[in-house]
């Protein structure tokens, strides 16, 4: 259809501002949601490798030993003498609790044994030691 001589032809316009708003909203949603996807209990340490390592359900309580001087109960720094009390409080009236011990491979055997001994003295604690599978077994 031909336009009339006195009719002005207008150019069609595409307004991209609403599209940019939607894209930024989606981007913000994905950025925030990825923060909740990888939840790791405790602090990051270099776990020793074990061929017999088995995957466990996520632990209720994590005890982390990143070095000789520090012990963390979940994410809180704690003294060895306060470990039993802290675990009992985190059990919150439960009969049993799975406590995963995450010790850096550079921590001395004696320090790990001291922590394990304290945990075993706590009523209702089931103890597990966190390891990783060697790269060849994955």
Automatic annotation (TrEMBL):
Its main location: membrane. GO terms for molecular function: transmembrane transporter activity. The lineage of its organism: Bacteria, Bacillati, Cyanobacteriota, Cyanophyceae, Oscillatoriophycideae. Keywords: Cell membrane, Membrane, Protein transport, Transmembrane, Transmembrane helix, Transport. One of its GO terms (cellular component) is plasma membrane. The keyword Ion transport does not apply. The chain crosses the membrane at residues 16-37. This is Biopolymer transporter ExbD. GO terms for biological process: protein transport. It is found in: Cell membrane. Belongs to the ExbD/TolR family. The keyword Plastid does not apply. It is a single-pass membrane protein; Single-pass type II membrane protein.
